[in-house]
Design a protein that fits this description.
By secondary structure, the protein is mainly alpha-helical. It folds into 2 domains: about 230 residues, no CATH class; about 120 residues, 3-Layer(aba) Sandwich (abc type-2 transporter like fold). It has 17 helices and 4 strands. Strands 2-1-3-4 form a 4-stranded mixed beta sheet, with helices on both faces. Helix 1 packs across helix 12 and helix 8 runs antiparallel to helix 12. The longest helix has about 30 residues. The chain is elongated, with a radius of gyration of 32 Å. It is a multi-pass membrane protein. InterPro entries: ABC-2_transporter_component, ABC2_TM. GO terms for molecular function: ABC-type transporter activity.
């Protein structure tokens, strides 16, 4: 019976469309609309700088700009008028004019203004350069603050210049070291794949179990029950069809999504366990719908509503940031647990690290199966 139903479902084009074609198409569409920000490419930028000759602190600003990493930045050293005109004409995205006597003013603790002219085509690249310039000026302005504080404390004038220069040029005491935290969070592309796979899993498993409602309407279920077999074997066969379809479709979606979007979900064994548990939870929900729905149309509507609710709450379209009691409720969602488990495996976690998501999904499956036997059957008994 299971094999016969599987052959029938595979020949049904709607199964292929809902299980594979539609989710893959949505993955590509959403990746095109939201993936641009994650894959931002910085354009080359030119900065025209006018710095007084022989001023070591002014030269430090120019030298810092030439060492900026992650952006193709060209520094043209020109006169003050040329720096302004280059930015206005579009030959440079930024024009920076450092006034004469800049270094002496900083050492003496006096106020000094650096003029910046933005071009019409300036964008995020120019903002990055401005942030770098502002950071250098902030460090140099520490010299002015030090000189003023020293003068207020009665430090001799002969020592103020040395103190100001030391404060302006001293390296920061705090350094940053880049690392990676096990945040259980997927990248934008990986989250999109996992969310769509989880959402359409709830549609795919319905092709098996919810077939009970259609056969009940058509009268074929009564004929099946009249055959020399136990009634629970019919339900089991439909459940196996749902389970097999769900496992195959979800595995294919994760595999193709990983290939097309160049992401990795980690250990294949751990991912396989997550898929098996997620499909079990989704299938149990279909048994409840089969008991509650009177007609196949009602079953289809209930399936769509629950799939969208659980899919959206599980991050199928966008991540949800919840706290407190709402976070606990959302965490019980099997799609959210599935996505969380994939976040763990993608970060290098194995079987021993996905215990919580697995228990949540298996617990949902057990509760769902128990509820399917307790809720009143609005149609005829299965």
């Amino acid at each position: 019976m299971t094999a016969s139903d599987l052959r029938q479902r595979v020949r049904d084009r709607s199964v292929i469309i809902f299980a594979l074609v539609v989710p893959l198409a949505l993955m590509f569409v959403f990746n095109l609309t939201s993936g641009g920000a994650a894959n931002l490419t910085l354009k080359p930028v030119t900065v025209a700088v006018s710095a007084p000759a022989g001023d070591d602190l002014a030269t430090a600003i120019t030298a810092t700009l030439t060492q900026v990493e992650g952006i193709d930045l060209t520094v043209d050293e020109v006169s003050a008028d040329d720096a302004r005109s280059s930015a206005r004409s579009g030959d440079a995205e930024l024009g920076v004019v450092i006034p004469a006597g800049f270094g002496d003013a900083v050492r003496a603790g006096k106020e000094v203004v650096v003029e910046v002219t933005e071009g019409e085509d300036s964008g995020i690249e120019s903002d990055i350069v401005l942030t770098v310039v502002q950071g250098v000026l902030t460090q140099l302005s520490a010299g002015a603050v030090t000189a003023a504080a020293g003068a207020g404390a009665g430090v001799p004038d002969a020592q103020l210049a040395a103190l100001a220069q030391q404060a302006a040029t001293q390296a920061p005491e705090i350094t940053l070291t880049q690392g990676e935290a096990a945040s259980e969070q997927l990248s934008s592309s990986a989250a999109l794949i996992a969310g769509q796979a989880g959402l359409f899993l709830l549609f795919t498993v319905g092709f098996g179990v919810l077939g009970l409602v259609a056969e009940r309407e058509q009268g074929t279920l009564a004929r099946l029950r009249s055959m020399p077999m136990r009634p629970w074997l019919i339900v089991t066969a439909k459940g196996l069809v749902s389970y097999i379809l769900g496992v195959v479709a979800t595995s294919v979606l994760l595999t193709l999504g990983s290939m097309f979007f160049d992401v990795s979900f980690g250990s294949p064994v751990a991912v396989a366990v997550l898929i098996l548990c997620a499909v079990a939870a989704a299938t149990s929900l279909m048994f409840i719908i089969a008991r509650v729905a009177r007609t196949a149309e009602q079953a289809s509507v209930l399936q769509s509503i629950l799939a969208l609710l659980l899919g959206i709450a599980g991050g199928a379209f966008f991540p949800l940031n919840t706290t407190g009691f709402l976070d606990v409720v959302v965490g019980l969602n099997p799609i959210a647990a599935f996505t969380r488990g994939l976040g763990i495996t993608s970060g290098g976690g194995g079987l021993g690290d996905i215990g919580v998501p697995v228990m949540l999904m298996l617990g949902f499956a057990v509760v769902g199966l128990a509820a399917s036997r307790l809720v009143p059957d609005r149609g005829r008994d299965l």
